TrEMBL record:
The keyword Disulfide bond applies. Residues 328-366 are annotated as: Disordered. Residues 330-342, 353-366 have a biased composition (Basic and acidic residues). The lineage of its organism: Eukaryota, Metazoa, Chordata, Craniata, Vertebrata. InterPro entries: Formyl_rcpt-rel (IPR000826), GPCR_Rhodpsn (IPR000276), GPCR_Rhodpsn_7TM (IPR017452). This is Si:dkey-117a8.1. GO terms for molecular function: complement receptor activity; G protein-coupled receptor activity. Keywords: Chemotaxis, Disulfide bond, G-protein coupled receptor, Membrane, Receptor, Transducer, Transmembrane, Transmembrane helix. The chain crosses the membrane at residues 31-51, 63-84, 104-133, 145-164, 184-208, 228-248, 268-288.
Amino acid sequence: MCDWWVLRCAVQITNSQFKIKIKLQMESTTMVIYSVIFLAGTMGNGLVIYVTGCRMKKTVNSIWFLNLALADFLFTAFLLFTIISVSQEYQWHFGHFMCKLNNFVSVVNMFASVFLLMAISLDRCLSIWVVVWAQNKRTTRKAQIITAVIWVAAVVCSIPYATFRDLQTMQGKTYCTYSKKTPKFILTTFRFVMGFLIPFLVICASYVAIGVRARRLNRTRTRRSQRIIFSIVLAFFMCWLPFHVFHFMELKIETNPELFEIVKTGGPITLCLAFMNSCLNPILYVFMCDEFQRKLKQSICLVLESALAEDRLSLMSSRSLSSHLSRISRKSESAAPTERKGTGTSLNFTESKVLETGERETLSTE
């Protein structure tokens, strides 16, 4: 009996040590993935914001891409607070206001990003199927109004989530989580229906229609269009479905405690996938656009030209200084005695030839 008890205690200690080790590894892995998503998302979406906002002409597509990049940029930028929280065992040290603000901004930009993806899909579908209507009615003014409505709808949908977010203290540690009075089932169901189910059905239907139309209009680009469409739908499905599934599993923890370890381990991974979608959006929706690629190349060339222009100006200033010194020397030589005039002229002629040859060589190298 005593041996059995010792063996059981040893097994429990081994299991607890194994769980602690797995927990530490998961936290480290999650923090690394979050950091990569944070850097890639802010840089990629920041580049899209610069190109669409400063370099591209204002069109319906540029308005969609600008607002989508803005939503994804804020979505990934606020990931910094989550990274710091994960590094400190999910403790929250930023206060009550930032707890609510961080959740509010994240949920707002989640809804805004998903709604914008749905709007882009519908706009592309209508542009291909109803060409005449799109040419007459598809204006930048209406696109701006639609994006404003999308942002307002995202804010309204996000208010309940920030309302029930609060600080809780357990074992002397402070966490930013939902309060016990939160109607979790209603909020989870609402987020799934409005943030995934309806947009996913609309995106799928739109791109199926686009694929059918593309097959009829241009057979040479059918395979490329099908690959892009498949990538867009698959990325949206794979990034967001696990996130919502695990939130529904979280609701069953009280009745099924065995799900606690699964949710605790897989929850951060599903959140990584959800954040990763904001990094994939610039690639799938923007970088595949020919106009965006052209403007991006022009922007890079402009940066290089400006850098080279500074070097050119410094080179030109050194040349102007040398020519100024040569003119001074010629004036001094002309004022010299007549017996040195021929020698001075030949010297100046030789110096000017050297300068001219040097300038030609420099210009040829440029």
